[in-house]
Design a protein that fits this description.
3-stranded antiparallel beta sheet, 9 strands, binds pantoate, 19% strand, 10 helices, 6-stranded parallel beta sheet, alpha/beta
Length: 282
Amino acid sequence: MNVATTIQQVREQVRAWKKAGLTVGLVPTMGYLHEGHASLIKTSVSRCDRTVVSVFVNPTQFGPNEDLESYPRDFDRDSALCESLNADLVFHPEVSEMYAEDAATYVEILSDMPKQLCGKTRPIHFRGVCTVVAKLFNIVQPDRAFFGEKDAQQLAVIRRMVRDMSYGIEIVGCPIVREPDGLAKSSRNTYLNAEERKAALCLSRAVGLGKRMVLDGERDARCVVNAMTNLIMQEPLAKIDYVQAVDGVTMEPTDDIYQDVLVAMAVYIGKTRLIDNFSVRL
Ligand code: PAF
């Protein structure tokens, strides 16, 4: 497995693969890889001839008071994991390789979609995500790109960007991977102390409750959201950012439960902001 730190190295490698008629999968990550990322890499390896994993903590998607500086990093561990999973290339650029000092061009969806859910408290987040993912698409020119369903709004935003910008790339969403006790895998779980780690289970319990209500026939999204909210509020260490039901494609709030509605939440456990969700399958 090769490690590339420059855009040119990636372009040369991908050009050689394409010349040989090989398909290329891209797994964009910010590193500190866990089993959730591993499942994306495995899916790409199984569906594409070659797999590129990008490891880049993207500064443009962090707000001024967010955790850019403290975001966990361990590139040696990440590259060993990529190698063990048969990835072919890891792209690990410096910030200066990705953004010129006077870079002033962004990719931004100008509908309400990136303003819903996480966008309410993270106003520049999805502009940063779209910009870096568009750049990665331009650099790697993959046939397919793989994203986790835990970041459901990110996945919807990227699908929209791909449609609007006519990228000929298949976007593959991969299921949430959970710890044995239910907590969704996240690089930010490392911020939790033992007490917070226990408290964080209120998110997956709320997901379980919401799913059961829908399975039992509840079709009023407000009842589902209220029940989930009440469950989370019983946890003293939890502070709700949002629990909301939205259309799975547009991210517009909905009061009804129907196929593919997304029920999503962001909850602070102490200082750590965690997200979780489920999509309605009827
Ligand atoms: O999901 C992430 O880790 C990031 O938002 C992504 C897609 C790699 C863009 O920086």
